[in-house]
Amino acid sequence: MSTRSPFVGSRPFDTADEAIFHGRAREAAALAKLWRDHRVTILHGPAGVGKTSLLRAGVLPELGAGTDPRVLPIGRLAFLADFPLAALPDINPFTFALLASWYPEDSPTRIAGSSIRGLVRKNAGVDRHGDAVPVLAAIDQTDLLFSGTRDRDDHRRRFADELVEATAARHDLHLLIAVRTENLDELQTLLVRSGMPARQLTRFPLRAFSLSTARQVVSGPLSDTGHPLAASAGRLVDELGAGEAAIDPALLQIVCSRLWEELPRESGDDDERLPKAVDRALRDHCLRSLATVATAYGEWPSALTTWFRQVFGRKPDADGVTEGRRLTRDLPNTVVRALEDVRLLVADRPAGRRRYRLPQVRPRPVVRRRGREPAAERGRVARQDPVGPQAQLGRPRGERAGAGRGLRPAERPAERSAGHR
């Protein structure tokens, strides 16, 4: 039996994971064709649906490694290398990060002095007939354009202007832009205002798995492993779906990764042990994710846990939980959005304002029981939070212990992990 898990857990699939990437063959082929045939393609879907995974483990292998067209590395808008951007205040951080990821072999100094159009032109190639080789360039996690403060508006507008200029000037350049559906309208408006014809924008929606596809995603990587989860794929999907017609891809990977480690190798009563194992996987995912966000944003872990249980452990409002102007149910919007980044929430934006919900209904009873753990677990949380959750959420952010430790926008958990699936 293989001892290496064929499930990636909370991280996205990468190109090296092609062999264990299942359930998206049709989408990978269709998106690769759109990218080749159209000037600008926008891949959109909710957080956790698998946009990054589809790009890296599905579309790139579908295109192959040939030189016609030339496929650039996946572009990012967050610069992760150790380079003193603050020493170059006139640089647009979005442009610099994108070009550094598209052309990693170029020096930061060359990139700092280049525009998108200029660097694409310098690196363009021709085929044996002297014709320009098409360049396929993707930008992942474009939501970072819309996650900053107003002082980044100028950078965002200038970046869009450069991108549109490069697309208009380079007919060999084909863009694929990945964004959450909640930011789709804002992205399209930004590009059109910068001069891109709306007719050039081709949209490709990515949705959650159907139940049949989810079963394939579980059973496919388990073939020839001898793992008992292979025989339980259907029951697992039914358990996680809890009567819903779709399965959240990120949550499915998180649960399967845990069950790969936890399910006993010997045979047993799956009907009895599987629900309990899923409960534990969901509980631990909630614990780790809430702790990650609490640490990053200077919140008390128990205060954030209590807020999450009170807001999302109950029967939801028909329209979900609507984001306020600055606070959502007394919690800063930046913290609530971070909960989306770590796969605890998904959002839509039907009327211009975000609405949040759990990715599946199945975690709700687990969330509702948060705060009623064994005494040892409660003691561990209490030692971290001597004041108490209600008192902490009632105090101004500047008075909360650790509030000054909040991360700068470029260091938020989602940007460090490159994880928007």
Automatic annotation (TrEMBL):
Residues 356-421 are annotated as: Disordered. Residues 6-349 form the Novel STAND NTPase domain. Residues 372-383, 396-421 have a biased composition (Basic and acidic residues). It holds the Pfam family nSTAND1. InterPro entries: nSTAND1, P-loop_NTPase. It comes from the Bacteria. This is Novel STAND NTPase 1 domain-containing protein. The lineage of its organism: Bacteria, Bacillati, Actinomycetota, Actinomycetes, Streptosporangiales.
